[in-house]
Structure to design on (179 residues):
């Protein structure tokens, strides 16, 4: 599939419009060596027209606890939500312990507040700027769970989901994580 360049103007326009998911929450399990990993993706409608090449996508991963001697180590969940235009993440929030390192200011570009900086916040928002997705800023009031991340998404980028939020682990018993 050929891809047109994604302009900053297109991204601003798209994010400002009201959007609707085209399907309900159908989480799909992804192959993973440890833990459980799920993805949910849906096309988006705008003015009752499905936007070609535009997807909302979420990734959720829960790692099992590890035991070393008498210590049990609990791992934090990894949660990501994003809007993609073809393969470009034009907007995203990542919530994981890896953090994010912003690239330095490009020659000739206007410096941004967090250019070249390591973000220490678990949650950071990727913002499409200057034709790229790599710049991120800390989320001022990060949500404490996946449902909160979806609520923040609906407020930030005007998406309405077809049905109330359903967690990917709904109905999964905790002992399955200790397999």
């Amino acid at each position: 599939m050929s891809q047109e360049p994604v302009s900053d103007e297109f991204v601003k326009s798209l994010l400002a419009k009201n959007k609707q998911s085209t399907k309900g929450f159908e989480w799909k399990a992804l192959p993973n060596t440890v833990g459980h990993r799920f993805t949910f993706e849906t096309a988006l409608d705008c003015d009752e027209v499905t936007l070609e090449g535009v997807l909302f996508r979420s990734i959720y991963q829960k790692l099992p606890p590890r035991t070393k001697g008498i210590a049990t180590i609990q791992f934090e969940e990894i949660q990501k939500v994003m809007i993609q235009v073809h393969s470009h993440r034009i907007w995203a929030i990542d919530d994981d312990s890896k953090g994010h390192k912003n690239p330095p200011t490009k020659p000739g570009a206007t410096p941004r507040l967090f250019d070249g900086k390591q973000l220490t916040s678990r949650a950071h928002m990727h913002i499409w700027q200057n034709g790229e997705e790599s710049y991120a800023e800390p989320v001022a009031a990060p949500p404490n769970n996946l449902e909160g991340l979806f609520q923040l998404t609906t407020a930030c980028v005007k998406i309405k989901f077809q049905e109330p939020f359903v967690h990917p682990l709904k109905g999964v018993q905790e002992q399955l994580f200790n397999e």
